[in-house]
Amino acid sequence: MDELREDTFVQDDLLEELQQEPGLRVNARAASQSERPSSGGRMSPQDLEEDGDGSGPSNVTRRTFIQGSVATGAAVSMAGGNLLQPDVLRAATEPVARTIALRVNGETHELDVEPMDTLAMVLRYGLDLTGTKLGCDRAECGACTVLIDDVPHYGCSILVHQVRGREVTTVEGLEQDGVLHPVQQAVLDEMGFQCAFCAPGFIMSMAGLVKANPNATRADAQKWLAGHICRCGDYNKILNTAERALENARAALS
Ligand code: FES
Ligand code: FES
User: Fold this and answer.
1) Nearest residue to 156 (alpha-carbon basis) of 40, 14, 28
2) pTM of this prediction?
3) Ligand 2 and 195: CB distance under 6 A
4) Which range of residues forms the domain containing residue 225?
5) Co-location of 168 and 197 in the same domain
6) Of 155, 173, 191, which one is at a domain's C-terminal end?
7) Which of 99, 98, 117, 101 has the alpha carbon at shortest distance from 109?
8) Same structural domain, 200 and 226
């Protein structure tokens, strides 16, 4: 957990460096469609190689991709920080083991993965854990949030290789022995979502909050959940749910 938190500071340094770059756009739209790979957000090692002026076939260089990722991530607020790391991007052009052991919801899975597979991709399409949603696939909406060592992270913006040796928890892993997690119970109590596409991401972040600070207030929850978007605009009920989840967690502890 500490290592993942330290990553945030690496990103801060990189952001400062990149902000010196002329023309860098620090806003949520920085990684425009024209700067993204054409293969649905997945990048090949070739995409990540520097091509000098950025005029290669995909028009994506490692630098423009990192700029887009950092700028996009700077526009949202997540508890743990969860962007693609420059060191990992550099390492991604080197050979890496295709077969990894991934810990998810208390089980170990042997998986054959690509170097650039994101955690969210592997969860959904490798393990069929489709509770983890993919909305933007670019660190904007929070739908893909999972816990890594109990800290919320965007699954779309972390490579699966980065979580080897970590404990990943998805929404499917919250219920224990037939007993709903305090956050799941709160969702039922408050009926806190409309279409609920955003729900798994919010729920996982709330689960991180009740673990980190069951005495958190509604205002604390509002800040904690700031990295999520609900397209139905159901924020008031979502915050009611967060408050109820905190109450449920405190009751379970007493
Ligand atoms: S799908 Fe990951 S933040 Fe939107
Ligand atoms: S309830 Fe529909 S996106 Fe949040």
Assistant:
1) 40
2) 0.67
3) yes
4) 182-253
5) no
6) 173
7) 101
8) yes
In degrees and rounded to multiples of 5, residue 111 shows phi and psi of -130, 145
Q: Identify which ligand lies nearest to the alpha carbon of 199.
A: 2
User: Would you say residue 93 lies in a domain?
Assistant: no
Give the per-residue pLDDT at 172. 98
Query: 68-72, 116-120, 129-133: which range is least confident on average?
Result: 68-72
Whether 235 lines ligand 2, by a CB cut-off of 6 Å, is: no
How many A from CA of 172 to the centre of ligand 2? 19
Q: Is the Cβ atom of 90 under 6 angstroms away from ligand 2?
A: no
Q: Yes or no: say if 150 and 169 are a contact pair by the CB < 8 Å rule.
A: yes
Instruction: Check residue 85 and report its DSSP letter.
Output: P
> What is the average pLDDT across 33-54?
36
For the stretch 82-127, pLDDT in tens is 444 555 555 555 566 788 999 999 999 999 999 899 999 999 999 9
- 34 CA from centroid of ligand 1 (Å): 18
Give the residue whose CA is nearest to atom 4 of ligand 2: 230
Cα(230) to ligand 2 centroid in Å equals 5
